[in-house]
Design brief:
The complex is a heterodimer of chains A (about 140) and B (about 120).
Chain A: E1 3-10, H1 14-29, H2 34-55, E2 63-70, E3 74-80, H3 88-93, H4 108-115, E4 118-124, E5 128-136
Antiparallel strand pairs in A: 1-2, 2-3, 3-5, 4-5
Helix pairs in contact in A: 1-2, 2-4
Chain B: E1 3-9, E2 12-21, H1 25-39, E3 44-55, H2 57-72, E4 76-80, H3 84-92, E5 101-102, H4 105-114
């Protein structure tokens, strides 16, 4: 059986910690292995950080929507902002080196790509950018 | 919101961070702290992350910025009490190869005397 949970919140940094707590609770409920739970939570926070800073330009009037879809074999999270999107195809082909110590920014997408099984972007008309994070759970649920 | 307390152990400044390190106002707060320490001639510091609930990639960038600033001034910035979540971020970005990280305060202080 699949279930969906939707959360919508203003673009404010203080809410990112709340999202972290919610991800932790859902991971506990799904009995995910701690390392998998960490990867999901880290990636959701990264997607929300990008939505807040780049999509919504840190404007609290613009909301971020998260839809968490729980499936027996995977967890799929959609993060929506209110921005105009970006050229993700170009970006994905030239992801900056995350170990470059002279860059203080630009590691979020690399982290999501490494930690998730699938990462995709879509510009949704009249809404904004939609990021989809998918993590398969084969063998990663606590025994 | 990031909070911090500073103290000294054997001439090394220990910065105890707490809360979250996620960008926004945290970036300027951390940068100001680093430059305040440099003005006081404190170039070798330890960032204790034991009470930090969360760091995202922006927070990692803040730490990297502190590290490069200290190195430019012939100092160093080392990490103490790094949680598993923060370790995951450092490993995936390969920044674990940049930061020296310790579990024990005595060991990190000792490492400075060995340099």
């Amino acid at each position: 059986m699949s279930e969906s949970i939707m959360i919508e919140f203003p673009s404010k940094y203080e809410y990112l910690n709340l999202i972290n707590i919610i991800c932790g609770e859902i991971a506990d409920d799904m009995e995910l292995e701690p390392s998998v739970a960490d990867k999901v939570a880290i990636s959701v926070i990264e997607a929300c950080t990008n939505a807040l800073e780049h999509g919504n330009k840190a404007s609290p009037e613009k909301s971020i929507r998260i839809v968490i879809n729980r499936h027996p074999d995977k967890i799929v999270v959609n993060v929506y902002d209110r921005g105009d999107g970006f050229d993700y195809k170009e970006y994905m082909e030239h992801i900056p080196d995350p170990s470059n110590i002279h860059e203080t920014r630009g590691r979020g997408i690399f982290i999501m790509k490494e930690m998730m099984d699938n990462l995709s972007f879509e510009l949704v008309k009249d809404r904004g950018m939609k990021v989809t994070l998918e993590k398969r759970l084969n063998g990663s649920v606590k025994k | 919101m990031m909070k911090y307390k500073t103290r000294e152990n054997s001439g090394i400044v220990i910065v105890e961070l707490s809360g979250r390190l996620m960008g926004g106002p945290d970036s300027a707060k951390f940068r100001n702290l680093i430059y305040d320490l440099l003005e006081k001639g404190k170039k070798n510091i330890v960032i204790d992350l034991g009470k930090v609930s969360w760091v995202n990639s922006v927070g990692v960038g803040i730490l990297i910025s502190g590290y490069t600033t200290m190195r430019k001034h012939q100092g160093d910035l080392k990490l103490l009490n790094v949680s598993s979540k923060i370790k995951s971020l450092l490993y995936v970005t390969k920044l674990n190869l940049i930061f020296e990280s310790f579990e024990d305060e005595t060991e990190v202080i000792k490492s400075y005397s060995e340099n």
